[in-house]
Amino acid sequence: MRAVPTVEEALAELRVLAQAVGAVPGAVRLDGDVLILDNPTAMGAVTVGMMAGLAEAVLELRAREGAVVEVRGSASGVFCSGGHLGQVRASLVEGGNGERMALCMTSVLDGLAGLPQVVVAMVDGPALGGGSELLTACDAVFVGDAARIGFVHTRLGVAPGWGGAARLVRAVGPRDALALLSSAAVQGPGEAVRTGLARGDLAAGEAYLARVRSAPAAAIRAVKRQVLAAAPLVRTGAEAALFAEVWGTPEHLARLGG
Length: 258
Description:
The chain is α/β, with parallel strands linked by helices. Helix content is 51%, strand content 14%.
């Protein structure tokens, strides 16, 4: 079982992997304190290049002052529909690339969760598969009418690979986490709020962001550190190893159409 790399190590490995699998449109951008998943023509699907971009953004945000990081898609009705299936079909199922990607993205999303700022996701579109795992790395999630949240991995014959299972257990408890993971149900905004995956609608999210941005940043960062210290996340790589057991199997490839 391989160890989870640091974010810096993950960035270096993702850059190599991105070069190997080839360029696909999509980017991760920082606009002030807003982190934008910019791949609207693919419903926000995350390419390997975007994974590297997310690692770069996490490292930049880690070094910044400030109270909040807002995460959103680049267009109305778009958030993150998971990993880019075209790249998965083309190359990520080969030669251990799946486990490499999983360990790197576990590190990157753990890095996002561990930022000194409060991380707030504003979801107005699908957050599926890896997109739902990204939400588990956010401190608060708010949803619009177009939001759809689903840990749909089992539909594709796989399991979470970006550390989302452990973070989901921390968020909703083991029984509810298992129900969400095993059913692969896709929740609309109302159900996401009822199950605790989201805190409220986008208007509530804007009000929350305004309150956090208006508070002294040092105080916000202090309470974020207190929360992280009270519930540290210890990552062993076991989740990525279990993911690798079902990644690239005949069942997985059949569900991918490969």
